[in-house]
Design brief:
Order of helices and strands: EHEEEEHEEEHHH
Helix content: 25-40%
Shape: elongated
Radius of gyration: 19 Å
């Protein structure tokens, strides 16, 4: 099977972004950096691409210029083992200019969208009980960062 590597288009801060992401996630590192040559179109010697891994998942950042930017139409989902991990990734990815969105989504300082989801969320939303799911979903729509305990309480009929 071929390797599928997400390729993230940055204006000119791909290396900075890759280093930022690698500082947040365990078992992560920049694995290769290539540079523009005289052939262009970027400034000769400036960073063209950055290959990096986030906990074993390969990514490539390309400094392709301002023609394209990120949108929430694509995001990276982080499945977290508990609320403490949700809080840690949420805070780290918001650092220095990110913004909270809604329902567990945020946009980091580079414009990339992330979903930070606690373990147990998918099970809660697929419990098979439509009323329970509806209560949890209504609670989720009031949240920016997901709080699994509050979602479970809402699903169980407790006030959020």
């Amino acid at each position: 099977m071929p390797t599928i590597t997400p390729n993230l288009w940055f204006d000119k801060d791909g290396l900075e972004a890759a280093e930022f992401y690698c500082s947040i996630f365990p078992n992560s590192s920049v694995t290769h950096v290539s540079h523009y040559t005289e052939a262009g179109p970027g400034e000769p010697g400036s960073v063209l691409t950055v290959d990096f891994e986030l906990d074993g998942q390969p990514y490539t950042a390309i400094n392709g210029g301002p023609e394209f930017s990120f949108s929430p139409a694509i995001s990276l989902l982080v499945s977290c083992k508990d609320q403490a991990e949700v809080d840690r990734y949420w805070d780290a990815l918001l650092a220095d200019g990110g913004s909270e969105v809604q329902c567990g989504w945020l946009t980091d300082k580079y414009g990339l969208s992330w979903q930070i989801v606690p373990e147990g969320f998918n099970e809660l939303m697929s419990s098979g009980d439509p009323e329970r799911i509806d209560r949890a979903m209504r609670a989720m729509f009031t949240m920016k960062k997901l709080d699994l305990a509050a979602l479970q309480a809402a699903a169980d009929g407790a006030a959020v």
